[in-house]
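Notebook, bench 3.
Goal today: get a predicted structure for Vitamin B12 transporter from Sphingobium jiangsuense so we can plan the truncation constructs. The sequence was checked against the plasmid map this morning, with no discrepancies at the termini. Length recorded as 650 residues. Pasting the sequence as submitted so the record is complete.
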Amino acid sequence: MVLPRYGSAFLSLLLCPPAFASDDADAEAGAGADTAAILVTATRVATPVDQVPASVTVLDRSAIDRAQDIGMTELLLRTPGVSMSRNGGYGTATSLRIRGAEAGQTVVVIDGVKLNDPSNADGSYNFANLLVGDAATVEVLRGPQSILWGSQAIGGVVNVVTARPARALEGSFDVEAGSRQTVSARAALGGRSGPVTWRLGAQSFTTDSISAISPAFNGKEADGYRNRAAQGRVEIALASNIAADFHAYYSRARTEFDDTTADSPAYALNREFVGYAGLTADLLDGRFRNRFGYGYTETDRDNYDPRRARAQTFDANGRNERLEYQGSFAISDRVTALFGAENEKSRFRSVSPSGSLSTPIPAPARGEAELTGFYAQLSVRPLSGLTLNGGVRHDDHNRYGGKTLFSAGGVWTLPTGTAIRASYGEGFKAPTLYQLFSEYGNTTLEPERAHGWEAGLEQQLFDRRFAMGAAWFERTTTQQIVYNPCSSAPDPMLCLQPGTTIARAGYYANVARAEAHGVEARAALSLGALTVDGNYSWTVAEDRSAGSATFGKWLPRRPRHMANGSIGYALPIGLDLGAAVRWSGAAYDNASNSIRLAPYTLVDLRAEYRAGPQMRLFARVENLFDKEYMTAWRYGTPGRSIHAGIRGRF
């Protein structure tokens, strides 16, 4: 492997002190961290991070607070291998990609419930409305993870775990205000009383934001955004080894957006509901753990344009119902089996009404699918510090029949502070309901298939005060589904709506093969009050469709080079100062690579003052040098922003 000249230079600097690493360094064999004490739940059972073969980032609440981010997207962008594109400011369509995979190839989970939206074109979760909120831990598990998480987990998994009370009564709040009339307020209260553990939380976020269309394309008006969210959780210990768990999350957001070429008064309403009910039972002195659960998610999306006689321009609804059983059995102190069964039913409805009141609203496109899966994974520790695992999964789709997938991996942690990781995984993604049944649908689509592997090395030195690591990964996806505009369609017959002679603008087809490979490197240094950390990602994600006009082209909106760095210093007076830098290399906005997105560098400043044992005052400047840049062609991004607030934990 030969890195470009500037990429290899940056990597060599990264792996030598002074290092620049990410805020996740504490979780990724970071300086000063006890990695054996860090548990990863994205593996579906709490596992010490030094026993996880795949690359994983774990951000705890202290790291989340230090970052001061309001949106989950901004927090995730600090981790290796993660890129983002957004059609404007807060609340506009946001796509997150892991290691160059498609946005719809990442599974998003909150407290064990998958959030991906079946009514979205690619089935992805729109990160636009996911705020940091009451998150206690955020995990990013990179690489194919379909063995444990099923369809869609080709790029990886983002797992959000909300706070759980540990005392009789506890709470937290965050209030801040800043540029563009931005105000965010969040509060949560919970406690433990006898067999009952409970927590309630709410958040309100409002901003005038920026023009969705970039000022370079005559965007002038501010497109505002507001989000109101609430959540609750109750756990009841029915016996010493049996517990019931109920939790729910609801958010309602309103986003103003623009036409693709000009300002407009259009806006969107988005409502999300997540509900879960579960029962856990630990048997044989805790060696045999069982969980039975029911999860329900529903996403309602409506777009409006007040300029039209019929204001509503779009109406969509997506629902998921999921029944699952998961068991884990400690066969011995060194052998553990994880197994489970799942049944998932997805439904969607979508319609785009005409602007004329004289034109009847057409019948909505509808579709549903059912997927039943069984999985098993065996984890063995034959030697001290060595963990090996292997897994298999079989899914039966009501349209595509059975698919069987395999995975294997290992991690070896040596007394020298060295950790060696390697893993292989397979994945698949069934066509989304929108790709099958919408006005652009194609019911002859086949599932996407993928396989990938990675190998990495981590090293801790000087009593854990310095740590560094790097990993190489590769992934191949076949039968990838893409949208074909009828202006250049290879199959004109598919340019008619199914069963009609009505022309349509395009359709979905299995025509693509994609390949991705690259390097992720990270390092961290802790010298008392001084901390320095950072990460660098080199990701080559290309179209490898034989005979295609785009063969060898970069996949859209995926920069090949990304880096994050931060430095912090804690003054004796209780004042913590920090700076962070994010660099993104060039990318292309379209499949033909004719529209180039320029590279950019963003610098942030942060400060936090310990006003008391439970109170913090904080402030930050984002995009200090007011850099103009784009993550999606024509769409604006925030300039310099200043925020200040107060945080309490009690």
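The chain has five helices and 33 strands. The domain at 5-599 is CATH 2.40.170.20 (Maltoporin; Chain A).
Flagging this for group meeting.
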